[in-house]
Amino acid sequence: LGSRLAHWGAGSPRASMTTLRLALSILVASVLFDHRSAAWSIAEHGWIRVADSDPVPGRRAARRVFVDERGREMLFRGVNLPMIALPPAAEDDCPIDPALYAPGSCPPTKATYTYPPICGREAGRGKFSQSTAPDAGNDLAQVRELGFDVVRLAVSWSMLEPSPGAYSSVYLDRIEQVVSWAKEQDVRVILDMHEDYYSFSMGRRRVPIEDGAPAWAVPNASIARFPVLEKLALDVVGFDWHTIAAFRAFYANELVPGSFWGLQEHYIRTVAQLAMRFRDEVAVLGIELMNEPPPSSLDVFGFSTRDLYPFYRRIVQAVTGVRDGMQTCPATHPVQTGCAFPDLGIHDRRHMIFVDPMALRNEVDRDLGWGLKPFTSYDNIVFAPHTYTNSFTVSLLHHSLVRSYAQSLDTAWVTAKHLNASVFVTEFGGSSSKPQRIRNIIEEQDRHLTSSTHWVWKERGEWDLWKQNGSAAGLSLRPELVQILSRARPIAVSGQLLAVTYDVETGGLTIEATKPVGPSLPPPTLIYFPPHVAPNVTLQTVRAVGANIQALRRDPDGSATLELQPELAGARSATYSLAAATTEQLEKYARGDERGMRESVMLV
């Protein structure tokens, strides 16, 4: 150790005092025991909720954040797992019978499947006892090994309610099966009610992808009556008028032939089936009420307050029982603006509700609605924008409507404040041929201290984490995406998280947070290092200021979790920080490499 420090001192322009300070830091750290036991678990955190976070003058505005049962601020990273039916395989898609996914089994994929089956061949063996080889058929174990602690599980109305008022217990059991696999791996789940262009049963050819509503919920008569002039106007601006017509009938709660309920009421009751099934499941973070809802007319500025958020409020009222200061609507007319949707008796008030903005946000990275304000008194609301900057971005007169990669989250947090919500980016990504776009997006998520799930885990295309190797079954991870998405990060932070910086090339991480205020020591802050980074992080390469390093726990998958005990402060402005360099960074420092020195300044 002494010779190496001498080399650092001689090979850099820094004074010998700098070397002495670094030596003292390393000597203090080296006396700590390097633990080797599992540390990352759902049991560690319990139920997650949305809570207020005070402003930190000059550093962070007041906002709503995710906290665990011990009051620590949470930052999630994850991926999307679709379990929906899409053409051309809508009638012959991945099987949904849980029996076909029993231990040791994984249905073979087909070239026509958009998304391969989600499997758990070795489910039940424990968190670290399942193979994560590419062909092992243990998707959730593979998800965990990459450091993802949440998946957004896309499910479909068409598969939940295949006929009016009849719900598929088989599909619900299949969803529960996947949730149980995730829970075994300590991976949380967002249940996403997914739709694209309303339904795959509308017989179109010009839309890129379609899913969502069952065939019986397609309002064919209303679509056929759609005004000709409005069709022409929508064609001019590039909207699919079939989708607009269908959603107009949906928001109007048009009566379903042969049923006593309207379209919107059917949908609300279907979401309630999910809420009832998972009401007591701690592994479920919450339900995302609808994926990328399109507008119902050319009035895109009035759509959110007129149609979208009143629709969301009705679902919240149905599954939580909150009344929002309203009288309950009569059962015969439950969808009205001046009364609350009937309480369906579920009373789920522990899960978060995720709400997407209008789908057009994906193209401009800002919200287009006027007069946004809290739409419900329920306290666990999460604004769930999607970020596809420079993939879906549109231009006006050859000028992009998006100024920077920061715009999506700059505006999202403003909208969340209006809605009294936190922010979780439930989709982001781009073509694997443009990895720099994905990197730019997730680096903004770090800067904005915002949780996210990447689109997508596996699919027939170029946007997923896996690539095909010449056959339907031959898959391998895309290393360029793993390097970008599998990141070191804080998992749970005592105090208020102020800054996160991660270096993709070297794996170096820095964080800063306010010191907690209180009479007793807070729970430890937990910092995660994925398997491709953890071997190069040791107690000798970590330095904390204003906090004590308690342990560096290494898990069997090669990852590591650092436990950091913040000191107490008399004022919230007092902060603590952690700098975790890697051996690669230190070697650059030893060589006198300018960038390596710049990266390693955090150690001294």
Kindly describe this structure:
The chain has 604 residues and is of the alpha/beta class. 28% of the residues lie in helices and 19% in strands. The protein is built from 17 helices and 25 strands. Strands 4-5-6-7-8-9-13-15 form an eight-stranded parallel β-barrel, surrounded by four helices. Strands 3-18-21-24-23 form a five-stranded antiparallel beta sheet, with no helix packed on it. A four-stranded antiparallel beta sheet has the order 19-20-25-22. A hairpin with a 6-residue loop joins β19 (497-502) and β20. α1 (2-11) runs antiparallel to α2, α14 (435-447) packs parallel to α15 and α16 (583-591) crosses α17 (594-600). 46% of the residues are buried. The model is unreliable at 1-38 and 594-604 (pLDDT under 50).
Offer a quick outline of the entry.
This protein is of the alpha/beta class and about 600 residues long. Helix content is about 30%, strand content about 20%.
Helix and strand arrangement:
Layout: H1 2-11, H2 16-30, H3 42-45, E1 49-53, E2 63-67, E3 73-74, E4 77-82, H4 139-145, E5 150-156, H5 157-160, H6 169-184, E6 188-194, H7 220-224, H8 228-237, H9 241-251, H10 263-277, E7 284-288, H11 303-320, E8 352-355, H12 361-364, E9 381-383, E10 386-387, E11 395-396, E12 399-400, H13 407-419, E13 422-425, E14 427-428, H14 435-447, E15 451-454, E16 466-468, E17 475-477, H15 479-485, E18 489-493, E19 497-502, E20 509-514, E21 525-529, E22 542-545, E23 547-554, E24 560-566, E25 575-580, H16 583-591, H17 594-600
Parallel strand pairs: 4-5, 4-15, 5-6, 6-7, 7-8, 8-9, 9-13, 10-14, 13-15
Antiparallel strand pairs: 1-2, 3-18, 11-12, 16-17, 18-21, 19-20, 20-25, 21-24, 22-25, 23-24
Helix pairs in contact: 1-2, 10-11, 14-15, 16-17
